[in-house]
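Comment on the following before class.
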Amino acid sequence: MTPFVRRAGALILVLEACYLLLTEVALAVFVVNTAEIDHTDAGGYDGLGGALLLAAEGLTVLLLLWAAAALGIASFADKGPSWARAAGFGLVAVTQVLGTWAATSNALTQDAGPDVLVNAVMVLFALTAGVACLLGLRSAARKAPLAA
């Protein structure tokens, strides 16, 4: 069961990273900034706040891809110090818990329909990826040298 969960978690993490990247590309290409026409605050990705948001999303994508590689590629799993692997898996597990919480709260506020089904699938995927990250966290903790 463990190899299946690790591979499924790795695939889900890659899909999440692709989703984030495609969303950003779609927003950049297809959303028109009408702030000048509407005489409103530009908001969006202008200024320091936009740069910080893009930097945070970029780091999230890199972290998701790293965790996917560490879960899915055996030779990559042992690279780097064990504390860094444990911290990385812990951060990704936290993002999966937050994703599960967000999808669950969204599903509970919707009427029955396709949105609830999509949120249920999101919860299932986030739980699977979270369990895979916890397995990676457990293996990183086992390989950590004990402090005397």
Helices lie at 2-30, 35-38, 47-72, 74-77, 82-109, 114-142. DSSP finds six helices and no strands in the chain.
